[in-house]
Design brief:
It contains twelve helices and 14 strands. It is α/β, with parallel strands linked by helices. It has one domain (3-372): TIM Barrel, CATH 3.20.20.70. The strands form three sheets. The chain has an eight-stranded parallel beta barrel with strand order 3-4-6-10-11-12-13-14, surrounded by seven helices. A three-stranded mixed beta sheet has the order 7-9-8. Strands 1-2 form a two-stranded antiparallel sheet. Strand 1 and strand 2 (13-15) form a beta hairpin. Helix 2 (80-91) crosses helix 3 (135-155), helix 3 (135-155) runs parallel beside helix 6 and helix 7 crosses helix 8.
Length: 373
């Protein structure tokens, strides 16, 4: 049997194979972040497709931390009953599930009641787009992450993942490109990592030693003056020392041009896959924490090579599972053809539609086929 399909454990969580659904914004919740049926169906289909660990789309831990419309929320206790349905939708179909805890920071959508907050002021064309967080704001946010983690436990999730990648709040604090603070949360790397460490420690204190806590972190920002691979390794070492159970490696921000987290363009050959492979190799040379690697996986052969060679411990997929939620099951059954995802990023355009996230290319091709018939 391929090592891709052997069971493993991350702390107290058993995972039936090495495939992970990386957190993907679904836009299937209510306007207030509450759980709706389409999101439950999405989670159930991924589990039926034999994805070992499913990480939900980013769930905002505070109202001002919301990144987009119809984003799943975890910011109040009234949401626990709906969140229970998400956990059960996965577990009753044989999968393990983690909720990703997130705060958009300066990328918050902003409302009449809540303005975006970040590590530093953001001023564009003379207009303040986001305000620097006060120390009190920071303390309140750390508390909010802890509260959200407790809700995840009560809702029956198998784990939580802290979102510290892609230029959202915790990533903003880590990156000197965004973080211009002069206090204990800015400047040197230890200071820039302070908020992430405090969030982890707060969550650990709330959920206990045996509940899995993971983090998603950038390999680098791909920005001049941004977070680097060398800094990522040092932050990962800090987190390992504190007992982080697993680290998911991604990369890029919305300002990273062609090197954004979801790179566009059809991947015609394997050398355009595994975006962060070299950073992953360096990680594995220096750390023991289990590594989940995301970024461009389309080929079964490369997924297997990454695991057998020890480049990573888990392979994470995002866009391929939008088009083929049963991709892992197909591979397990012996059909090892490449994922049908063409990395066109047209799925982003569906986030504003009533049905939420789906593969626009697949929908287009099916419509053509129906017209022919």
């Amino acid at each position: 049997m391929s090592p891709l399909f052997g069971s493993t454990r991350i702390n107290g969580m058993e995972i039936k194979n090495r495939f992970v659904r990386s957190a993907t914004y679904e836009a299937m919740a209510g306007l207030d972040g509450t759980i709706k049926e389409p999101l439950l169906n999405c989670m159930a289909q991924l589990a039926k497709g034999d994805v070992g660990l499913i990480i939900t789309g980013h769930a905002h831990v505070t109202l001002e931390g919301q990144a987009g419309p119809r984003q799943m929320g975890i910011y109040c206790d009234e949401m626990i009953d709906g969140l229970k349905k998400v956990a059960l939708a996965v577990q009753e179909n044989g999968g393990a599930v983690a909720v990703q805890l997130a705060h958009a920071g300066m990328r918050g959508i902003g409302t009449a009641d809540y303005s975006p907050l970040g590590p530093s002021d953001v001023i564009e064309a003379g207009i303040k787009k986001a305000s620097a967080m006060t120390v009190e704001d920071i303390k309140r946010t750390v508390q909010a992450f802890g509260d959200a983690a407790q809700r995840a436990v009560k809702a029956g999730f198998n784990a939580v993942e802290i979102h510290a990648a892609h230029g959202y709040l915790l990533s903003q604090f880590l990156s000197p490109y965004y973080n211009q603070r002069k206090d204990v949360y800015g400047g040197c790397l230890e200071n820039r990592a302070r908020l992430l460490v405090e969030v982890y420690q707060e969550i650990r204190q709330r959920v206990g030693k045996f509940f899995p806590i993971m983090v998603k972190i950038n390999s680098e920002d791909f920005l001049g003056g941004g977070f680097t691979v060398e800094e990522m390794i040092e932050v990962a070492k800090m987190l390992e020392d504190f007992g982080m159970d697993a680290i998911e490696m991604s990369g890029g921000t919305f300002e990273s041009g062609k090197l954004i987290p979801s790179r566009g363009g059809t991947s015609k050959s394997e050398d355009r896959e595994v975006y962060y492979g070299e950073a992953a190799k360096e990680f594995k040379r220096q750390l023991k924490t289990p590594l989940i690697l995301v970024g461009g996986f389309l080929s079964y052969s490369l997924a297997q090579e990454v695991i057998t060679s020890g480049v990573a411990d888990y392979v994470a997929l995002a866009r391929p599972l939008i088009r083929e939620p049963h991709l892992v099951k197909r591979w397990a059954a012996g059909n090892l053809e490449k994922a049908t995802c063409i990395s066109c990023n047209r799925c982003f355009l569906t986030l504003g539609m009533e049905e939420g996230l789906h593969c626009a290319q697949d929908k287009k091709e099916k419509k053509k086929q129906q017209q022919k018939e």
